[in-house]
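Fig. S4 source data, part A: sequence.
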Amino acid sequence: MKPGQQTSVPSGQFQNVKEVEASAKAKMEKVIAGLQHEMTSMRTGRASVNLFDGITVEAYGSQMPINHVATLHVPEPTLITIQPYDVSQMGLIEKAIRSSDLGLNPSNDGKQIRVPIPTLTEERRKDMVKHLHHVAEEHRVRLRNVRRDSNEAIKKLVKDKLISEDEDRRGHEETQKLTDAYITKIDQLAKGKEKDILEVK
């Protein structure tokens, strides 16, 4: 399961509205964490070691993240250097970067890999912003799914006579407030990332 993806709340696990709210909040936090994780691997005009977060290398018989097989540095704003712990892994690391969808062209001098970060074209920036909006919307939908599951859990508490109608109403109001607050967080994160992508260095 990808970070931030949600499963439905099993009905009957809650005894009161507070438990429903606590569960919803924890799930919404995971949605935000999932979005942040996805956004770190989106390219901007600046070099960042987080760029390679989603890339794995075939090493020692298993797929491993690049930062588990090498040290990454950003010596200048448009360059990332990669120092493999084992130089025999150099070709595999290069291949993994080349075959990713980042559009980067690594080279090595026998000791380390140099990855120049080219300036993004205006068209590429616009495509990335479009992709960013799509990813942000997916995470808003996940938040709304958490809200739906929470509201269903609250309705069940009423049906099972575990809470009063007043608590039922308050529970729905609090769930909506929580959803609005987390949607605002998504909007702010997406806005910040969009600014990073569109900023021409």
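Fig. S4 source data, part B ends here. The helical segments are 17-40, 66-69, 90-98, 122-159, 165-198.
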